[in-house]
What we know:
Blueprint: H1 3-16, E1 31-36, H2 40-43, H3 46-50, H4 61-64, H5 69-79, E2 83-87, H6 105-122, E3 127-132, H7 140-146, E4 153-159, H8 160-163, H9 170-185, E5 189-193, H10 203-213, E6 222-224, H11 235-250, E7 258-261, H12 272-285, E8 290-291, H13 302-307, H14 317-325, E9 327-329, E10 342-344
Parallel strand pairs: 1-2, 2-3, 3-4, 4-5, 5-6, 6-7, 7-8, 9-10
Helix pairs in contact: 7-9, 9-10, 10-11
Amino acid sequence: MTFKRIVAASAVSAALLGAPVAARPRTPVHTDHHVHVHSPAILEILPTYCSSPGRIGPCNPAFIKPLTVDDLLAEMDEAGVQTAWMMSTAYLAESPMMVPPLPYASARVHDANAFTVAAAAAHPGRLIAFVSVNPLAPDALAEIEAWKDEPFARGLKLHLTNSGVDLRNPEHRRRLAAVVDAASGARLIIMIHMRTRAEDYGAQDVRLFVDEILPHARDVAVVIAHSGGWGGLDVNTWDAMEGFRQILAQQPAQLPNLFFDLAQVFDAETSPEDRARLVEVMRALGVQRFVAGSDWPFSGDLDNYLNRVMTALPLSEDEATALAERRVIPGPGFSESRRSSEVRVP
């Protein structure tokens, strides 16, 4: 084994074990396409939400830690991340997991979204605000309309698991399609956590989503959070990715504005075999459709996750560099110069 191969193997092993790797990758991740900072309006309800009998599992300790925008920016600086898509967690206020439902939940949703937009306005070029709604909530369309002309609201985050959406329910599909249509009309990029609570979630849900929901996005970019899962690489996530692969294989040029983020799809404990399989799937779907993301603060230390753990993904050097540099630019007026790695959307 050559010296270069010994060094490379050591770096991969360290990353897989979660140990810090001394050498930073040649190209740091430019844009983290998936981070969260709770607003005060959401932090206030988290104890009730996490103890609710409607929860389907315990809250991750990282999820309830009262981190701030300054904490995020400090981690971005340490990791060399220039820009982050900051997802509002407003949808939590209207989650069916909150039992009993919160009074005045719609007002709390708006306050949480306002916090996220204000953070982006205070840090232009560094933070991009994604407002959020529960697509089944009666105020969802009105909330999207409220941000339609706000220059610092650039995207919409949807979380189907948390919102109780069932893609096999025709009424849920109709209401989700209406929300996606409204987001497209407002020129908001759509970030969607599309995994549902169905135990057999997978390719059949992807087909329903692509056939009945995605056309309503028209020419607005749609990013599939966690590459179709909810973090990790379980049977359901593999099946969802296979569903997308089959659809795209039928028409390779289909869905030009469809992307997948890698936020928490793998971590330091993901096996080398699963990492290799993930890269095969990425190439089948088109590596150019994948963007870097962390799901911070779930990722833990941002520098370690983006610039160390992620380097253990067995991409070619060119693929890894392109992934680190790739960013979806949210329309005209965003204060960055264009580069070949950018994907600009209306």
